[in-house]
């Protein structure tokens, strides 16, 4: 019997448009079930009945809910990352669908054409989708008997005045596999500032559950040795000429991730890189989610929080020194 996992079918764009296009009530239902999975319930009076109020604005038509008893009004996107979004429900859902349904990524220019909205709006939409992916990533640790870990560099190799690659950042990649060097399961990616044992230990502990029964394959980077009290570390230098070396899968996946970031998204800055790294981690770990992806998005939306463009820029700016590698 073949061990090959059959990839579940992706969400069908045809079925998506059959359900949601020209059907604002279906779009309302999506966000309503996200906000109230057990049906509408008023915070103030526990009433389950509501009026749906349609508001036709200059740029979009929006819907708000009003409790039939106490008349408290609710916006369906309030309290989520898409609070005060400029898109109407269908365009927002379609944008989310197109962004999450891709295995590799989708450029803002392409999404702009598909949604027929301006570039700035799409940039913000994509950034917020990446925030949703980051929220989901941070929820789970990997648990396996077999791990592979390595450090790679990402970012443009443009030279600064000192002739050094100024945009490159170091990323720690940790992969869990179902068997040693076989059948990749999940990946975790973390931007790191240095390769010291302390830094690698802290970051790996945030990625996976370590145990003395489990094995960690690495490539001779001294810092990984610090973990040998918690896990069996095989940290010998690897001969990359060998066909099936110990980090074959991690290296292959990292190669694909680098191609996705540089091939689809041009000129990602150092400041934005943490979000793009998180996006790739999410996409890899959800490669078998298939047509359940839209329900996954709903779960991420439930635990999201409002954030403005200004706040995103501020957070990325203040965290930049933390992620900058001394080259
Ligand atoms: Zn009420």
Mean pLDDT equals: 90
The global form is elongated
Strand order of the largest sheet: 7-6-5-9-10
> What does the largest sheet look like?
5 strands, mixed
CA-CA gap between termini? 49 Å
What number of structural domains do the residues give? Answer: 2
CATH architecture of the largest domain: 2-Layer Sandwich
Any idea of the CATH class of the largest domain? Alpha Beta
List the bound ligands. zinc ion
Describe the model:
38% of the residues lie in helices and 18% in strands. The protein has 327 residues and is an alpha/beta fold. The protein folds into two domains: 13-137, no CATH class; 142-288, Ribonuclease H-like superfamily/Ribonuclease H (Nucleotidyltransferase, domain 5), CATH 3.30.420.10. It has a five-stranded mixed sheet with strand order 7-6-5-9-10, with helices on both faces. Helix 5 (119-137) packs across helix 8 (273-285). Bound molecules: zinc ion (ZN).
């Amino acid at each position: 019997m073949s061990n090959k996992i059959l990839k579940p079918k992706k969400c069908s764009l045809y079925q998506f448009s059959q359900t949601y296009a020209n059907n604002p009530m279906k779009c309302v239902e999506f966000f309503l079930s996200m906000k109230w999975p057990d049906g509408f319930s008023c915070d103030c009076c526990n009433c389950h009945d509501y009026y749906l109020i349609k508001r036709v604005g200059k740029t979009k038509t929006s819907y708000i809910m009003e409790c039939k008893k106490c008349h408290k009004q609710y916006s369906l996107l309030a309290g989520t990352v898409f609070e005060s979004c400029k898109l109407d429900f269908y365009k927002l859902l379609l944008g989310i669908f197109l962004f999450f349904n891709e295995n590799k990524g989708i450029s803002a220019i392409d999404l702009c054409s598909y949604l027929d909205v301006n570039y700035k709006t799409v940039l913000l939409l994509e950034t917020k989708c990446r925030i949703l992916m980051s929220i989901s990533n941070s929820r789970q640790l990997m648990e396996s008997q077999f791990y592979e870990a390595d450090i790679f560099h990402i970012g443009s190799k443009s030279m600064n005045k000192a002739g050094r690659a100024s945009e490159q950042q170091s990323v720690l990649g940790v992969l869990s596999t179902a068997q040693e060097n076989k059948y990749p399961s999940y990946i975790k990616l973390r931007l790191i500032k240095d390769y010291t044992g302390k830094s690698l230990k802290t970051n790996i502990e945030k990625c996976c559950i370590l145990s003395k029964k489990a094995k960690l394959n690495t490539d001779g980077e001294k810092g990984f040795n610090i973990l040998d009290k918690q896990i069996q570390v095989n940290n010998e230098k690897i001969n990359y000429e060998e066909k099936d070396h110990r980090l074959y899968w991690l290296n292959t996946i990292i190669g694909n991730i680098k191609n996705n970031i540089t091939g689809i998204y041009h000129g990602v800055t150092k400041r934005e890189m943490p979000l793009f790294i998180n996006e790739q981690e999410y996409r890899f770990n959800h490669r078998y989610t298939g047509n359940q992806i839209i329900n996954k998005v709903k779960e991420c939306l439930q635990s999201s929080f409002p954030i403005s463009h200004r706040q995103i820029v501020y957070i990325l700016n203040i965290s930049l020194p933390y992620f900058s590698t001394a080259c």
